[in-house]
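re the bet — no i am not wrong, look at it urself. input seq straight from the record:
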Amino acid sequence: MYDMSTRERALALVGQGRSLNSVSKETGVSRAFLRSWQTRIEPLKRAGEPCPRCQGAPGPPGDPAAYAYLLGLYLGDGCINAHRRGVYVLRIMCDNAWPGLIDACEAGIRSARPDNSVSRVKKDGCVAVTAASKHWPCFFPQHGPGKKHERTIALEPWQQEIVHTRSWDFIRGLVHSDGCRITNWTTRLVKGERKLYEYPRYFFTNTSSDISRLFTDALDRVGVEWRQANRRNISIARKASVALMDVHVGAKY
């Protein structure tokens, strides 16, 4: 009666903690089918791709570049919530204005857990890209109670190795979540005539000093000059550094 995309969307909504009644009203799928899919289909999905961190000898995610980007998104606009039966739901909030960013976010999540379904939940002005898995805390050990800026955020050694070798992917994820590329302007007197002068710059804004430090450490590794504009903002305005950022990061899309 229902195609696979309808099943995946309905199960994703249930995986977010929604009641069967509310999911049934939103999707048109009967509660009986939702209960059946929960007991028959979802356990099969979770039994697929093994977690690289749960092996006898834990290893890194299969695609380090995709993981570095996803880690940047998670630290900026992501959260992990416990559901039931040991399942966790990863949510990354993306602005509706950047459809390419939403696609890249979904691709990053699929790269981490290929056998888990990914859903887009529309909200006012944004989209929550979500996926349920027992293993999200394995991928993101920074998960914990409370807001990120109110607790210590530190990378584990295996994450540090990925971020050091994939610094640009990590920077891009952080900028796509909590950064922007803007055009500033000022005026100058040229031969007695005041003229408008425009120049691009990047900003990164985060209230966590730990996350900001991870960002600036990565910038240092790739040779980008930056300055602390204020307690929450990192500014990149030097022409050569902006050019580097344009090559490897670019404006949101």
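see?? Residues 164-248 form a domain with the Endonuclease I-creI fold (CATH 3.10.28.10). told u. also The chain is about 45% helix and 25% strand. so pay up
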